[in-house]
Write a structure and sequence with these properties.
The protein has one domain: Ribokinase (UDP-N-acetylmuramoyl-L-alanine:D-glutamate ligase), CATH 3.40.1190. It has 16 helices and nine strands. The structure holds ligand NAX, adenosine-5'-triphosphate and magnesium ion (MG).
Amino acid sequence: MLVKHCVISALTRSTSHSPSSTVLRRQQFLVRTLCASRTHLPKLIKAMSSTSEADAESVLRTVTPTLDPKRHKGQAGKIAVIGGCREYTGAPYFAAISALRIGADLSHVFCTKDAAPVIKSYSPELIVHPVLEESYNISLHNLYVLLSGFSEEEKRKVQDKVIGEVDKWMERFDCLVIGPGLGRDPFLLECVSKIMLLAKKFNVPFVVDGDGLFLVTDSIDLVRSYPLAVLTPNVNEYKRLVQKVLNCEVDEGNAGDQLRSLAKQIGGVTILRKGKTDLISNGEIVKSVSVYGSPRRCGGQGDILSGGVFETFSPSESPAILGCIAASGLLRKAAALAFTKHKRSTLTSDIIECLGESLEDICPAS
Ligand SMILES: NC(=O)C1=CN([C@@H]2O[C@H](COP(=O)(O)OP(=O)(O)OC[C@H]3O[C@@H](n4cnc5c(N)ncnc54)[C@H](O)[C@@H]3O)[C@@H](O)[C@H]2O)[C@@H](O)CC1
Ligand SMILES: Nc1ncnc2c1ncn2[C@@H]1O[C@H](COP(=O)(O)OP(=O)(O)OP(=O)(O)O)[C@@H](O)[C@H]1O
Ligand SMILES: [Mg+2]
């Protein structure tokens, strides 16, 4: 109760103007998340904590918002992917479109200028912002920089411009997913670390995946103790996190406890470790999702998952761990369905096509 009171007061103080409904919802969400973590999570999770395998279908039913005719556009989720560069345009598209396919109302992508026309051409549904800059692009356009190297002053100017573009929108988002197809350009990653700070300032929840995890592994304080952060590492990303944070190797014989220690060590962020069985922990409890999925390991399935986590995580205002369980269960069910239809030729786009059918099966629209 005291924690709740303190958090509400702090949040009220930090908002000088009358808060918009998005801000208010986010504040309530943060309060719920903080209080939940202080009290070892609410009843639903307590009830699940005696078994390690989560009941993904009932969690999905719990977190999926009903289709209410009184609701207006945006109330089922306004989300943004920070990712997409010269090399990777598929990953941010997969994440953004998956969120729309499972119920979000608006899906934005903030990517580099080169990637934007390509991502726009995949779908008119996405709102694409060509704002991120890679260092090679800046050097090409600035002779001074070419001759003298990239000065601190130039760097700051470009970064301020990028952050300004994102800042205009930040308050409107219910959740971000940071990293699919971001690439590893140091200048771009520096900008993205500032975007993370901005998201934290506005209490916007975020999912970190792909190259966002490369950034975070190197600068773990970017997410440390932020209760609204979810990390979704694959096998390699997890290995790097364990090595960096726990200073040891991945211990498969003790996977659950190691994941719990890792999440605890990062201040109670939620981690979804992807693999044959998905393992999820917030530093207190560990849940697994091993619903049968697909034997196809085509690239992009993790991107669907990150899109799914941030959609199921945000509008339901449930603790992050439930969003992870719901997204994992849904992706796996869709992957299984796609595989029955397409067998060896199953691609990530086929799995996305099956998201609606899988969701309808578990949680009918009417
Ligand atoms: N179509 C696209 O645009 C895609 C872009 N992607 C993006 O590509 C970037 C790099 O992600 P990666 O996942 O490739 O980076 P990783 O560092 O995870 O993987 C690098 C290498 O590890 C190998 N690997 C994969 N699973 C393994 C396993 N179980 N054991 C041992 N080695 C394994 C892969 O063959 C790959 O060559 C990210 O930004 C990501 O979001 C991916 O999401 C895939 C789809
Ligand atoms: N060996 C496996 N068997 C069954 N399902 C798996 C296996 N490995 C991963 N998955 C499923 O695929 C999903 C994506 O995990 P994966 O490890 O492929 O992510 P990723 O490497 O980040 O993908 P991406 O190519 O999008 O970057 C996981 O949530 C999990 O449900
Ligand atoms: Mg990935």
